[in-house]
Amino acid sequence: MSTTRASIRWIRADLRVRRGQALLTVLAVAGIVTALITAATLLEDGTNPWRGLFAESRGAHVWIHTKDAPDVTALSRLHGVTQVAGPYRTAPVMLTMDGKKSPVALRGMQVRPPSVAAPLIREGRWLRSGDVDGVVVERSFAEALGLRVGGPFTVTALSGASHPLVVVGLADTADQGFYPEWTPGLAWTLTTTLARVEPALGRSESVTGLRLADGEDTLPVAHGAVTLLAEKIQRMSTWREVRASMELDNRLLGLLLALFGVTGLVAAALAIVNVVGGRVLTQTRDIATLKSLGYTRSQIFGLLMAEHGALGLLGIAVGLVCGQIASSFALDGMPILPLSSVPLLSIIGGTAAVVLVAVALPAWRGGRTPPIPAAPAAPPKGRLSRVARLALLVRLPPALVLGTRDAFTRRVPAFLSIFGLAVPMMMITIGLGVWATLDDFLHHPEQVGQAAALTVRPDKLTPEDAARIVGADPEVQAAYPGSEVSALEPEQTRSVLARAVGTSAQPYPFSVVEGRMFAGRGEAVAGQGLLDLLGVKIGDRVRMTVGGTPLIVHIVGRVVEPDQDGEVLSLGLDSLAAKDAVPPQFYSLVLRPGADPAAVRARLLAASDEGLEVHRVVNPAERLEVVRVLIVALIAVLALLGLANLLTASALGLRDHALDLAVLKAMGLTPGQVAATLVTGTGLLVVLGVSAGTAAGASLVGGLIDLQGHTSGVGAGIGRTPSALTLLVAVLVAVGAALLVTLIPARRAVRAQIPVAVR
Amino acid sequence: MSPPPPPIVNTVNLVKIYQNGGVPVPAVRGVDLQVEAGQFVAVMGPSGSGKSTLVHMIGGLDARTSGEIWLDGKRADTLNESAWALLRRQKIGFVFQFFNLVANMTVADNVELPALLAGASPREARERREYLLGELGLADRADAAPAQLAGGEQQRVALARALANRPSLLLADEPTGNLDSRNTRDVLRLLSEVHRDGQTIIMVTHDARVASLADRVVSLLDGEIVDDGAVGPARRRPRATAGDVVELRG
């Protein structure tokens, strides 16, 4: 096109004089795209190690455990099955380590690793033909037990015979979940070794993996296998269960990022509208000149779209790269797969569309600039705004009054500036609220349903001895006996966890946020997840099968429930059948304030001569520490957006009042007062935007976190608003930084020689 | 006798009425103006007499309310905005009172811009620019930014830009309105030189001395032509500078 060359000259010249602003646009868009891509990677279970492991090991979708080796040919002929792994003979053995016994499934393998579902060696090596005593251990199991390559692996078969084996390698697998979520632990050994450890075929089972053409088609294959093998099948597992057991808390992280990303995108769109709009306004004369030289309306539109749109698209490209890097940092060391193309393309497409629309609005306005370059570009109205009149009324210094008047001479840009500052500030406030909520989780675990810092299982001791040792510890405030059984919900299709801790008379300090605590037999409290699952309200009675015993449960309250997606029924031990309740499986220990759980744990272990099994309760917030990094990064991006808005508002203010400066000086204002006038004009918008944003953020954050809590099953009641002090500091920092940023160009403008005659 | 070539500009009962808060304000009230090729016409009149509006309408910068505009024998008032832009690109050069150079671009880029816009290759545009700046005595300022130039230099650059595409019509809106007398003289000398080379010029001015340079002076008052007279060639002294001629008309 004939205008291309001329347009390129124009764009190059324009970008040369506003490098900083252009860079800001690119960075802001890049930041948003980074957040969105990282969010999508986290949400799309790319972060679930299962995905990577499954792809890397060419895992099997379905695992079938049978008594004897099944008919492999028949299985492989099932519709949808592409390959078969095994069958592998697997024997249950007991691993003895430092006096602790852990069940292990010992699986017989060949020297040559299989083509489907091959264990992925991470340390050491795979089995060799001479390894009569060698085992390769599943990595999470090895890590939990402190097993190392070259270390002993002494197993006891069901017959009671002990076999000293040696670990030769550690491997990852997608065959089963991580230990201890998935038990027993898994170890591979040569079939000959397995035959020596467990010669009796009757005491072992056969494990066969099926790799399917389409992982979504598990159900028909499973049905086919059941029909084929009938009662030979002992159990079956699918990739979904494995994946679910490997699921991390990335969902919350991803949702948070997505929230920030999407709102950030809105903020970015506003910033772009502001920046481009401001630029178009300041260039009105130049654009008019271009038109008088023969640019058409659509060519001006295209020119502006090309210049500002290209910056946005460059930002998207940079964001793409940063997103990949950020994702891999966020999931330090975890095998992740890149984002699949659909969400990636929708992020790129969506952001590009938002950016282009945001550019198009001011560009369209630019295209409509009248071609008479002499047309006045000054603000149309010059009368005092109400705010200014108010300022006059209270006898503020003249610089403030004049600045206040200036702030609203252009109504629409003024409101866009306020809004453009308010949105990032709102998100920053929400970020601070999330921070405060995390702090609250850590400092007041009892408010999030984690009053107990330690869980003690009697293990080798009798429950009475355990209770005595626990009760004797000076820092244990209370020990609540408890048992966990599975409860079947009314339709009997899905089991949930029923956790009985404490008794109806002396209940465990669950954090009840709605209704009341259970106070009698048959009464229970539930997490939000369970209420949603059952579709019941507080006060309803539900027939459930708790630990095999039918029970009509009266749900009297809702608790904050961070475990099991909130699908937990909590009740008193006296509500359970005696066979489940006596003796209690564990004791939940509430420690005295200030007690160190690790110290108490060590003391209890020493007192019981290592006979107790003492676990620290993991606070969900500890797993969410990465959120804080994220909040800091997002605040940086949002601050960039705010800065872009601010610079535009400031530049526009300067431009509108460039002529006034001479007049003001002539009227006898000192350079300081003139600068103050300019700063006030922008500063007022900043104060309004920041205050509005903070107020909106503070009123939204509790609700948003609770909403997230509700949908994740934890339940509402965890959201915290940042403290008043934090908010005040945030507002002061934002306003102070903004004023500083405006002061520099204002001072420069005041010092510069003012062309009185221009225009 | 063959029919005479059509006038470069022909306006028929041209009217422009601005709407100022719902109140119609007539700026141009039925102007009939013919400008022949090679003529140098000065449009004079006091402030608010509609002279700038008239020139803007002839250049398509402002839409007419009624009437006809014919450029080079073709009707132009019915063109849409884009067609006007294309027409300006090829046939019309503008010089404004405040120069209106694109501030971010160098002098060279400013002058090359119209040529590039009209589809010239970068080389052609550069050669044309070098020629024009050389003619106007600005060859050594090609890489300067407009803000670094004095007012008269800026207006010479603007003139170079207006002439970049060899327009058939040069419209100048108070080209000397913002210049001191020395720069005024320089710019006027340039205008008369390009006129001598055959350039058709319509120049708006309120300065009688400036107007006296033209072949013909059209006087506007309240949007109507009140006087239209040729400055007789006999009375014109071609080598004279503007300062030598003091002649008031209308």
Structural summary, described in words:
The complex is a heterodimer of chains A (759) and B (250). Chain A has 759 residues and is an alpha+beta fold. Chain A folds into 4 domains: 1-48 and 250-377, no CATH class; 53-246, no CATH class; 382-445 and 621-759, no CATH class; 451-618, no CATH class. Helices cover 51% and strands 19% of the residues of chain A. Chain A contains 23 helices and 20 strands. In chain A, strand 16 (541-546) and strand 17 (549-559) form a beta hairpin. The longest helix of chain A has 41 residues, at 671-711. Chain B has 7 helices and 10 strands. By secondary structure, chain B is of the alpha/beta class. Chain B has a domain at 9-102 and 167-244: Rossmann fold, CATH 3.40.50. In chain B, strand 9 (216-221) and strand 10 form a beta hairpin. Chains A and B meet through helix 1, helix 10 and helix 11 of A and helix 2 and helix 3 of B.
Task: Write a compact overview of the structure shown.
The complex is a heterodimer of chains A (759) and B (250). In chain A, 51% of the residues lie in helices and 19% in strands. Chain A is of the alpha+beta class and 759 residues long.
Low-confidence stretches of chain A: 375-379, 755-759
Largest interface, per-chain counts?
A-B, 32 and 38 residues
What's the total count of β strands of chain B?
10
Count the strands of chain A? 20
Low-confidence stretches of chain B: 233-250
Domains of chain A, number: 4
Mean pLDDT of chain A: 79
Order of adjacent strands in the largest pleated sheet of chain A: 2-3-8-5-7-6
Distance between the termini of chain B: 35 Å
| Overall geometry of chain B | globular
The termini of chain A sit apart by 34 Å
Q: Can you count the helices of chain A?
A: 23
Using only CA atoms, what is the Rg of chain A?
34 Å
Summary tags:
heterodimer; A: 759 residues; six-stranded mixed β-barrel; six-stranded mixed barrel; 23 helices; 19% strand; disordered C terminus; B: 250 residues; alpha/beta; Rossmann fold; six-stranded mixed beta sheet; 10 strands
